[in-house]
Design a protein that fits this description.
The protein is of the alpha/beta class and 298 residues long. It has a seven-stranded mixed sheet with strand order 10-9-8-11-12-14-13, with helices on both faces. Strands 2-3-1-4 form a four-stranded antiparallel sheet. A three-stranded mixed sheet has the order 5-6-7.
Length: 298
Amino acid sequence: MSSTLSPATHRASFALRDEQAARRMVDILSEIFFEDEAAIAASERPDGRWDVAVHFADAPDQALVRELVGNAAGEGIAHAIGFDTIEAKDWVKASLEDLIPVPAGRFVVHGHHDRGRVPANKIGIEIEAALAFGTGHHGTTRGCLLLLDYVLKARHPARVLDLGTGTGVLAIAAAKALHEPVLASDIDPPSVKLTRENAGLNETGNWVRVIRAAGFSAPQFAAQGPFDLVLANILANPLRQLAGSMARHLAPSARVILSGLLTHQAPGVVAAYRARSLVPVRHLAIEGWSSLLLRYTR
């Protein structure tokens, strides 16, 4: 796997009162900045407060960063942001060193440095070259993994799709648990490449097939469907727009796990899918984010 080494790293850093505030800030910033723009990490200080550090590949717009942080945490925090330039390093790896293994049901998402900390009765998912949004530290990823664990206690879906795979966490989790082929898709070429690398890292390269596609436009969806289980950790608006296409690619009684939506957006997404004969089964809310499990009634 290639190293993400830049000539210099530009950093914005500030402190928040507690872990909840820090995790919420990481979630917000992860939604705003793309993976090739910034690496975001939070770590606890000896005094109980939490530091948030945002590592940028290029010099950031400081006024914009202050505005974004100020909107979420107040002008006082925004005014206290420190900006500096640090030595060349693998800034993605640096951001992950502050992250601890994250359990989610039978799954544990971890980095290379914590490979030995995965319990023997758990399924480890090693994700190295990724940011907090795709490693399991984001509430949407944890929610999806918990719902996947719930589904797999009662069902063994043979045809699985991870739509908008990102880093491949969900596809890898399903492949490791089921030992069945999983189709993973993303519109973003770097995400397709990264998912292939992570699938190989987790010895699921023979199970996880990764394609570049927008929505359900590629012929592989029809060829490998209809699907018994679909995982889609995207965003609320695309999820609503994909409801019709999703339903057309589902097998009878299929299960669908949706996330990437704020809690207040969940009713609108549920309504869009209910209109296509998908009814809600479970709703998890984690750190302000919703994850939905739906059942296809046709």
